[in-house]
Amino acid sequence: MKSFAFRGLPLVLVLLLAGCQNTPSHNVLPVDELVSAFRQLDVSLAEERLDDARSQLDALQRRASGDTRLEQYQRQLADAYMEQGREALQQGDLDRAAQALGQARSLLPQAPSLSHDLNQAIDRAREARQNAAEQQAREAAARLDAQRQEQLRQQRLAAERQLKAAAAVTEPAVEPVVERAPKARLIDLDATTSSVALPMLDNQDNENLRRLLDSVAADVVTFHCAVRIEVREAKDYPWVAALLSARIKKLDPTFRPRLSQKIVPQQVPRLLLSPQRK
């Protein structure tokens, strides 16, 4: 019996080994873990979501820096940014075009010639826009200067008419019986305040300024006018005030003029005369 048992043992072992070899294998084949990530990158490129594609590519470069597929996707994404930049340039969006160009360059820094044409086109568009803006500024300045010159011309003509009117006024003849009311030279007696322009102050025409102030002083003394002197710069006030005060004192040494000043840089100098109402 023992002899039979020992002789049957090798047969049992052989059968067990054969059964193990016939059992189906449940081992799983290795799968590329990056396939899903590359598929997502393909979708982003196809839908032209370039910023998402850039973020996905950066993540893949960190995870699998040695993967040979990365270079192909890097070039593909750079080409997509270049196309985006050309479209933005055609639409006149220079900032967006420059941003797209910068992305393309950062993806392919070793190939600057690929973005050379787009870079030159953006520079030319910016130069043209700058030239157009400068031309518009020059034209606007020219229009403003022409308007100012015309305004000064009109004010100069008005001042000349005032001077002629003042020069044409003659002293009323003294009549022993009938006493005539004093006549104003420059001011409007029906108005609360009368304006007298001083364009000759801008032109430094002191001769005409003195002549005009002769008439102003006559009205100030005759109608007890308060005078506000409006000039462009503070230094002009003492000069006008001194000339006017000297003429007032010559007409009436006892008269005390009421003078005030106002600085108005954008306005042609003038006097505002306010006669005293009795």
- Give helix and strand order, one letter per element, not per position: HHHHHHEHHEHEE
Cα-atom radius of gyration: 48 Å
Tell me the number of strands.
Answer: 4
Helix content: 55-70%
Tell me briefly what this model is.
This protein has helices spanning 2-22, 35-46, 50-63, 69-90, 94-107, 116-168, 199-202, 206-223, 236-251, and strands spanning 194-197, 226-231, 258-263, 270-274. The chain is of the alpha+beta class.
Descriptive tags:
single chain; 278 residues; alpha+beta; four-stranded mixed beta sheet; 9 helices; rod-shaped
Question: How would you characterize the overall build of this protein?
Answer:
With about 280 residues, the protein is an alpha+beta fold. It has nine helices and four strands, in the order H-H-H-H-H-H-E-H-H-E-H-E-E. Strands 1-4-2-3 form a four-stranded mixed sheet. The longest helix is centred in the middle third of the chain and has 53 residues, at about 115-170. The protein starts with a helix and ends with a strand.
Give the secondary structure arrangement, pairings included:
Elements (H helix, E strand, L loop, with lengths): L1 H21 L12 H12 L3 H14 L5 H22 L3 H14 L8 H53 L25 E4 L1 H4 L3 H18 L2 E6 L4 H16 L6 E6 L6 E5 L4
Parallel strand pairs: 2-3
Antiparallel strand pairs: 1-4, 2-4
